[in-house]
Amino acid sequence: MIEIRNIEKSFDTRAGQTFVLRRINLKIEAGEFVTVMGPSGAGKSTLLSILGMLDHAWRGEYRLLDHQVDRLKPRERIELNKRYVGFVFQQYHLLDNLTVAENLDIPLSYRNVKGSERAAAVADTLDRFQIVGKKDLYPSQLSGGQQQLVGVARALIAKPKLLLADEPTGNLHSDQGRDIMRLFQKLNEEGMTIVQVTHSEENARYGGRIVRLFDGWIAGEERVTDRIGVETANR
């Protein structure tokens, strides 16, 4: 589903070029659940932004499904993002002037879903995430954890082929965090490809493979041998 070759990103500084990512080569098959880990500043969120086609200033080759992303114009990449990608942002990125329900409706409007179907999907999602009582509130009226839940719900409402999640449980209490990870695993078992960035070794065990970054380089990869299964997670 995803193949990137020799991806690099750098900034020009007075001291010369400062690299954020160096010669990243990575292949992710459809239906995989991959975790990207590493210390702060390793390039994890930058890599996720490139995969999500939110960052256009990089060099290298990137193929997503049947699309050669590195050959597309920024506008074409954005359209590809809207069609296939759901993104859970570390800083939420909810639209402040829209209610919770309106924020959830945005990804559906990008996909030209009919109004009646959108309303039904929003209602189902509000119920699934137990935020029906928050539907008419604005982001500023929500706690950090509530905003995180809305952000996850917005990323999933259109049933994307690829889910990218940057510290998806970072602002949730432990029970909420486990519920979100169980949901991710269930969606993955149904065929959704997931790439998450996390510092949590426990969250990494919900996936099948870990890619470790260090100073912008891939420092290693490993299969998860003690993966948390749905039966284990529901005990």
Can you give me a brief rundown of this structure?
This protein is α/β, with parallel strands linked by helices.
Can you put this structure into words, describing what you see?
The chain has 235 residues and is an alpha/beta fold. The chain has one domain (2-233): Rossmann fold (3-Layer(aba) Sandwich), CATH 3.40.50. The strands form two sheets. The chain has a six-stranded mixed sheet with strand order 6-7-8-3-9-10, with helices on both faces. The protein contains eight helices and ten strands. The protein is globular and about 50 Å long. It has helices at 44-51, 74-84, 100-110, 115-128, 144-156, 174-189, 201-204, 230-233; strands at 2-13, 16-28, 33-37, 59-64, 67-68, 85-88, 162-166, 193-197, 209-214, 217-223. A hairpin with a 2-residue loop joins strand 1 (2-13) and strand 2.
Strand count, sense and barrel status of the largest sheet are: 6 strands, mixed
Q: Measured on Cα atoms, how large is the radius of gyration?
A: 18 Å
SSE-based structural type: alpha/beta
Residue windows where pLDDT falls under 50 for at least 5 positions: 231-235
